[in-house]
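Feature request disguised as a bug: please show the residue count (489) next to Copper-containing nitrite reductase in the output. Example input:
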Amino acid sequence: MMLKITYTAVLRTVLFSSMATLLFSCAEKDKKAYSNTSEIPAIQEMTAELTSPPYVPTPVGKRKAKKLIVDMEILEQEGEITNGVRYIYWTFGGTVPGSFIRTRVGDEVEFRLKNHPDNKLPHNIDLHAVTGPGGGAESSFVAPGREKVFSFKTLNPGLYVYHCATAPVGMHIANGMYGLILVEPEGGLPKVDKEYYIMQGDFYTKGANGQRGLQPFDMQKAVDEHADYVVFNGSVGALTGDKAITANVGETVRLFVGNGGPNLVSSFHVIGEIFDKVYVEGGDLINKNIQTTLIPAGGAAIVEFKVDVPGTLILVDHSIFRAFNKGALGMLKVEGEENKKIYSGEIREGIYLPEGPGIQTMPSTTEVAESEIPAKSMAEKMEFGKATYMQTCFACHLGEGQGIAEAFPPLANSDYLNDDVDRAIDIVLYGLTGEITVNGKNYNSVMTAQTLSDEEVANVLTYVYNSWGNSKKEVTPAMVKSRRNESIK
Ligand SMILES: [Cu+2]
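Example output, currently without the count:
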C-alpha cells in the first residue's frame, strides 16, 4: 500500500508541474485547426480495434476524433518463457506485451478495464498517454470479477507505454503488465508498407536462466536488477523462426518499439539495417540515419527503414549478452530480389561475424568459408577431423573426449551424442545452453557456437563419432548444410 501511495503521489507532482508546459506546446502544434487539442470535438462513438503483438490495428488515417471505447481484459495465465520454463504472466488482454491501442489526437477514450473472475489480484492501469493523476491508475483500480470505467482525452500525439501500477508496482510490471498506446497526429502518420509491435521486458525467476519447470518471480533478483531473461514480446523466441516478422524488398517497415522494463534500458538495434527515421522517444522529433536507439524503461520509439536486400535481419538489444544469452533477439525476414550493388553475398574469404564469435543463436550467414579441400576418403576425414578437434574442441572436451566432471560433458561413449546426429550438428553450429544429461550425469552450462565450415563440422563430428566407443556415424557436409538451412527457414 505504501508503495502505491508513494508512486501516485510522485506522479501527481510531476504531472501537475509539467501540465502547463504540455498544454502550451500542444496548442503550438495544432494551432492550424484548434488553439488547443483539448478543444478537438469527438463526434460519434466507435469501439477500438485491439491487436496482439506483433500486430497493430489499422491506421487512423483521416478519421475524425471520436469517442473511442477500449475494452481491456486482465488475465493472469501460465505461459512459457523459453523451452520447458513456465511462468505465470499477468497480462492486459492475454499477451505480453498487452493489446496495442491505436487512437488519434482528440479522441475521447472510454476505458473499460475488466479483471477476470479467475484472477487472484486487483490491478489497474497507468497510461502514459493520459493527462491526469496516475495516468488513470487511481480510477481504474479493479478487483477480480469487477469492471472499472474511466475516460480521458488524448491531447498529445506520440507512442506511449501503459502499465499496471498496483503495489508492488515493480512486480506487476515484471510479470508482464505493460503495452503500448499510439496517439496519431491529425491526418495520421505517413503511410508505410508494414507495421509491427515489439516490446522489450526483463524477467526474474527463482531458477537460473534455462532452469525448467514452473518458475516463480524472484523479488530479490528484481530489486538487484539481475535479469534472468531479457526478451522481446514476452518470451525467448517470440519473434524468431516461423514467428519472425516479414517484409518484401523495397518496402518500408515501421516498428513501434516499447520497453516495459521494469529495470533495463534497451539499446535497440537491427543487425543489417540503418533506421532511416527514428521518432525519438516516441515523440515528434525525427532523427535520421540511426544505428542504435535508446529506449528507456517505460518509454518507446518509432523506427522506420526501407528494406533493400533479402535476408534475415536480427533485432537485438545491443547490450549484447542480453541478445545472445538472455533472449533479446528477434528476426525480420526479408524476401525478394538480390541487389549485389547494395550487398554482395559473394565474398568467400573468411566469415563476417559483426558481433564476434561468442554467438549462440545467431542464424548463420548462408556463405561460410570452405577453408578445407573436401576430404575424399574416410581416412582423410578422420585426419582433418582430428586436426579441427585438437584446435577447437580439445580445450573443453579434452584429448580422449573424456570431458571434465561437472563442467564439460564427455564426448567419449556419450549417449547424448549417439542419440541424435542432427542435434549434435546443431550444437556445433549454434552452441548449447541449459540442462542436459549425458551418461546419467547432469550438466548445465554454455557451449558457444563454433565458427566452422560445413566441411570442418562434418569432419570433426565424423572423427568424434568414430572414436572412443561412439556409434561410428559418418557426417557429410550436405547434412551440415541442411541443418544450416533449417535454422534460416
Ligand atoms: Cu497488476
